[in-house]
């Protein structure tokens, strides 16, 4: 069999140049100066849990950066060249998260705090939204979490993508009644429907089957894929990265469980971007409250409150700072330039990301990761829709000259 050396994004390695990381002290200092005092400032008006979630967001950003745990590249590698390492790492992440979530969700409380999983209606809208999201993430160059941690690493095109993400989300709120009317089975938690032990066993079996089939598919396409040896080892690797995909998967699952303990709900990203976009429009004089979606209930309350009061929005900001810290520790922070053409493509991709995420009740984190970890059927539908949309996104990416 042939052997193919590939980099962490799942594509053939292009260089064997030695990697000698040097900490960028100023970058690290800026990241810490924003993260630590930021948490302290949030603790006063909003409580210690809010501050702790801000720090957890920073930890998530650091893990995402150091493990290069990008869903976009993983799906693209699978669809384009048959490299399934990223997809198999996601199965590990989901397996660990499912085991950690189940005891908490089955009881409904943790340390006296009520907790609930990320369960949403499982219907046609999720399939369509996930497919649209998958196309968008290939054009934008990042998913929900990918846009944030890549921005922290200096990828300025992600600013444009996030603007598009927010705009697409707001447009989707205008059509809320339309996509709510699509055929749906309603919210289905496998844990509640089957019992938590059978549901966990079923999901773990499904993760194992997907990983096994993916591995066999990879061998048929590529032979034995030989991963590139890490450029640094031991404590230096822990500090500078890169971390293994498996290590990143386990860390992300554990941190998501911490989010459940602290906030009572699983990790999400889309809502924070949507809310930030709505507040930006209101600051520009747009009457966002006139939109039905924002006129009542939780959206209305969140729109009226300070953005600092919203846990998801604050965690989104912290992810960027955590990735900035990771980039500084790795000595790889660099502000990239964005051409008009690349910016336009990123904006278009962001619009699809935002619209698709709202249609699917979440992105790769809130719907896929947290949804499946909560045994929600809609999370599995999200995965199916994303796998259907990815080849289209890869084709459009090639047509746009991004590869």
The count of β-strands is: 6
In spatial order, strands of the major sheet run 1-6
Query: What is the string of SSEs from the N terminus onward?
Result: EHHHHEEEHHHHEHHEHHHHHHHH
Question: What is the SS-derived class?
Answer: mainly alpha
Mean of residue pLDDT values: 91
Number of H/I helices? 18
Q: What composes the largest sheet?
A: 2 strands, parallel
Q: Helix proportion of residues, in percent?
A: 55-70%
Please tell me what the overall shape is: globular
List the topology elements:
Blueprint: E1 3-6, H1 25-46, H2 48-66, H3 71-80, H4 85-107, E2 109-110, E3 113-114, E4 121-123, H5 124-140, H6 144-152, H7 157-174, H8 176-180, E5 184-187, H9 190-194, H10 196-222, E6 224-227, H11 234-240, H12 245-263, H13 270-283, H14 297-304, H15 311-330, H16 340-359, H17 364-373, H18 377-399
Parallel strand pairs: 1-6
Antiparallel strand pairs: 2-3, 4-5
Helix pairs in contact: 1-2, 1-15, 2-6, 2-12, 2-15, 3-4, 3-18, 4-10, 4-12, 4-17, 5-16, 5-18, 6-7, 6-15, 7-13, 7-16, 13-15, 17-18
């Amino acid at each position: 069999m042939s052997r193919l050396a590939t980099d962490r994004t799942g594509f053939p390695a292009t260089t064997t140049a030695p990697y000698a990381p040097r900490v960028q002290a100023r970058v690290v200092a800026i990241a810490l100066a924003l993260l630590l005092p930021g948490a302290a400032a949030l603790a006063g008006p909003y409580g210690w849990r809010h501050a702790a979630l801000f720090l957890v967001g920073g930890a998530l950003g650091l893990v995402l950066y150091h493990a290069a745990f990008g869903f976009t590249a993983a799906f693209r590698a699978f669809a384009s060249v048959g490299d399934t390492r990223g997809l198999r790492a996601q199965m590990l992440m989901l397996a660990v998260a499912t085991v950690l979530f189940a005891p908490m969700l089955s009881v409904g409380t943790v340390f006296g705090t009520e907790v609930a999983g990320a369960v949403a209606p499982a219907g046609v809208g999720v399939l369509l939204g996930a497919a649209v999201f998958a196309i968008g993430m290939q054009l934008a160059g990042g998913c929900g979490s990918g846009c944030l941690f890549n921005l922290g690493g200096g990828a300025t095109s992600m600013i444009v993508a996030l603007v598009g993400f927010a705009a697409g989300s707001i447009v989707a709120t205008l059509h809320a009644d339309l996509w709510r009317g699509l055929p749906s089975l309603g919210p289905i938690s496998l844990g509640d429907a089957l019992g938590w032990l059978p549901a966990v066993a079923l999901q773990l079996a499904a993760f194992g089957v997907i990983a096994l089939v993916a591995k066999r598919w990879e061998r048929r396409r590529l032979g034995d894929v030989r991963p590139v040896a890490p450029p640094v080892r031991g404590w230096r690797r822990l500090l500078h990265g890169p971390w293994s995909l498996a290590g990143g998967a386990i860390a992300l699952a554990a941190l998501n469980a911490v989010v459940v303990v602290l906030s009572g709900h699983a990790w999400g990203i889309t809502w924070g971007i949507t809310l930030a976009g709505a507040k930006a429009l209101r600051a520009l004089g747009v009457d966002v409250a006139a939109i039905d979606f924002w006129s009542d209930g939780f959206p209305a309350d969140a729109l009226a409150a300070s953005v600092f009061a919203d846990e998801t929005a604050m965690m989104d900001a912290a992810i960027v700072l955590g990735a900035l810290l990771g980039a500084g520790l790795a000595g790889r922070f660099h502000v990239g330039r964005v051409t008009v053409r690349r910016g336009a493509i990123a904006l278009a991709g962001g619009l699809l990301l935002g619209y698709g995420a709202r249609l699917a009740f979440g992105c790769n984190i809130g719907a896929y990761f947290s949804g499946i970890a909560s045994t929600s059927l809609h999370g599995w539908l999200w995965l199916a829709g994303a796998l259907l949309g990815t080849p289209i996104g890869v084709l459009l990416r090639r047509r746009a000259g991004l590869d």
